[in-house]
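Bug #77: duplicate submission created two jobs. Keeping one. Sequence:
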Amino acid sequence: VMMGTAKNITDEVQKQEQQQQKEEVVEVVESPAPAPPSPPPPVPTLSPQEKAIAEAKALRAQAEKARLEAEKMDAILTLEKVSKLESKLEAAQKGGDKKDEVTSIREQINVLQMKLRGETMETTTPSSTTTAAVKKDEEMNLITTSSTTSDSTTTTTQEEKKAENPTIPSLSYTEIQDRVDRFKNSPKFMRQLVAKTADFDFTDIDSINTTALIIQLYEDEQKAVRLMETSSTTDFTNVQVEEGSGKPKFTPEQIEQKAKDVSRLPQFVKNLYGDDANNDTAIALSLLEDDYKEEQQRKNRGGWFGSSPSSDGGDKKKDGDDKNPISAGNGGLFAELKRRREEMSELDAMVESLYPKTTRKEDEGPSEAQVNKLVSDVLTKSTVPFMPSGKPEAVPGGFLIRGTVTKTSSSSSSKDDDEDGNSKFEGDNLIEAIDQTIERNAPALKDSMSVFYVADPYPQEEELGPGVWPPVLFVTGPDVWRGPQQIAGTIVSSLGLATLWYTAIESFLLNPTFMARADEQLALADSGLTPDLGWLNESAGPLFLYLLCIQLAHDTAHRLVANAYKMEITIPTFVPSLVTGIASSVTTLKAPPKNKQALFDFAFAGPFTGMILSLIALYFGLVLTVSTDAASYANLPALPVQFLRESALGGGIIDGVLGQGVLDALPPVTGATSASGAGAGLASANNLPLHPLAIAGYISLNLSALSLLPFGRTDGGRMSLALFGRNGSPPVGLITSLLLFLRGAFGSDLILFYTTYILFFQNEPEIPLRNEVDEVDFSRILLATVSGVLVLLTLLPMD
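Kept job's structure:
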């Protein structure tokens, strides 16, 4: 636009010069050489009036030329100013300067571009002689309009103009040129259609002012967007419906408000309504009917846990129903959750998916004033190696504070620095400095919030790099754990111990000798006599204790590591299982761990201890099985061969100690042979008798391997969080769950039960760590690799 304006001015100057040359006629009389001397022809004389007109024309041409020259120079100077300001604006945006400075530069550019377009900052009251061009400007809703009146002029203040017509950001020269080129390259019929839709006057589409059309389309587009953002919503609560037709009857206030919104629509949008294009009231009624129908459809939408609307068409709501996702007419719980997810920003959705619900406790999050005090009294102090780069950003459960970590003098040179000179404990140093500064400068904040150093849940694209997630501070409420569950935990643990006892008894009932004795006692009970099952409980006691001791060793290892890192944890809860007695033991974190290393060590210690003890128990139990005499062997508990073949590691050890092929399909037998043939013909219905210590070792080996799988709040999920971070662990868990589900669906009741339990009860993310940025060291990666290999060998079948 600016370059075209300067070119037009130059062309006008050239036209004026040519016109002036044509008007300045000089009569030159040439005398022929051979002609005889004769008196010269009379020179025509001009009257005084004609001389005055000629002089006036010459002066007017000179004045017009001077004016055009001045406009040309002014346009060139304005173009230079705009170019300099655009360069300055680009540098300011890249340098992250203050928002006020960037806004000021943009306003200066807009003023200069308005000057090049011939717009002015004054508006006047239109009269009956308003030109068509001014009328067009009013329809386009330009920033300012001007028209000449004979007697009165009204100046509108800048504040009033901003309220009526918000400033529309101008397109740069490159953007305008790009749009112009695309328009010119379009088919002719399409260009005609666009121009007519925009209500742009033209006679020949090839000679149209393309630049002006592009600017009008852009401004109409921006106005439409602004209108969508600022349009008022209509309350249809008291709308009555006509009998018979079922059409809603809107109040005059509703129609007037909607018509006011319609009046602000660009004309090309109104043209879509055909004959009603110039009738704002008709368009308003059409829009109100559409909004009303959409509102009714939303209310009548059904779904799980949702109820149908009342028969009279009204919304019979009780007090507080608007806050209840399972209230009448809201489409049900799942529909409400879907709508809520659609209304959330991508950042809020990421925060809710990465952090547990306990970080979003109602009325317990920090206030904006408290977070601002944290920034001003703590983060900006020299003792804290963190430089905030913007205002705190509200997210579900708290606030995010973006910034960069600075190097303090205390950590400028240390043996703990890596090859690049960065501290390996950068996050720990930062969190410690924040805690100390809060204690010293703002002690009131100590019990009002928790500060975590985490990876940005939704970073900007320019901040991302290969495997790099920029760190931020996540500020939540002071308490992020779900609270005590003593009664529920006691009940669940009691059920877990009961199913563990049942598993011990079931193993003995798989022995045909014990099963026969149990049938005899049941027959006595059916006859009305008192049965005696004390022998069964007495036999199952050692197996129950072996299983319980290995699980207690697992939890003891957790407790020792927690004490070493000063972590607060709950008493373990035994989760019942009809397959293995207990599915796992759940130990909840009562306070955030210090860092990833602490979380990894805590999570790794329990299952690794259980796995080592299980292997030891399995091996020595098998040795005792081989050394058992025939009479004692006949009274050993048993496990199904198919169950023993589900673990390549456990089954391989059994095959290695008892003899190759002992886990092949065994035919039913009626008696027992010598211990030297342990497993060869000694099973009934494909059950293999084993010493109770071996059974306890095999079952506990599988439980320990399952607890190392990377799910949610399990031990494996915590290790995955420490290794892959909060953004990387969910994909790992998803892939693992899919593989395990397939594994369980095609042959393993144990894995199928455990996967189902995890997906429903343990799939929520772990509470945040104080420092989630610093990575674990290489030794822990090696330990994770070793444990991963053991898990695969344990859970993969022998086939």
